[in-house]
Amino acid sequence: MIDIRLTMEEKQHALAELRSIKEQFAARHWFPGTSGNLSVRTRGIEEGRFQYAITASGKDKSVHTPEDFLFVDEAGQPCEATRLRDLWG
C-alpha cells in the first residue's frame, strides 16, 4: 500500500458528496435500520493512489454523527485512527 495523504479540502469534498447521497437515499427509505453502505473514491483512478470515504457499518443512515464516515485504502483498511470496529474483524 502506498501512503496517501489527502488534503483537508479533498476529505471535506468526499464527505460532503457522501453525506448528500446518504441523505437522499435515507429520505427515500432505501436504508432500513442500519442496512447498506455507500462509498466514494477520492482522487483519480491511478493504481494505489486513492482512498475511499465510506459510511460506517451498523449505523442508522438517517442519523448524523461525527463517526458516520471513515477513510479506507484500496484494500479496505482504515487510513486514520478510528473508534469504529475493524472492518475485517
Explain what you see.
It is built from 1 helix and 3 strands. It is of the alpha+beta class and 89 residues long. The two termini are 20 Å apart.
Topology:
Elements: H1 8-27, E1 39-41, E2 52-55, E3 69-72
Descriptive labels:
89 residues; alpha+beta; 3-stranded antiparallel sheet; globular
What helical percentage do the residues reach? 10-25%
How many β-strand runs? Answer: 3
Which strand order spans the largest sheet, edge to edge or round the barrel? 1-2-3
Main sheet summary: 3 strands, antiparallel
C-alpha Rg (nearest Å)? 13 Å
Helix/strand order: HEEE
Helix/strand-derived category reads: alpha+beta
Question: Care to give the gist of this entry?
Answer:
The chain is α+β, with helices and mostly antiparallel strands. The protein contains one helix and three strands, in the order αβββ. The longest helix has 20 residues.
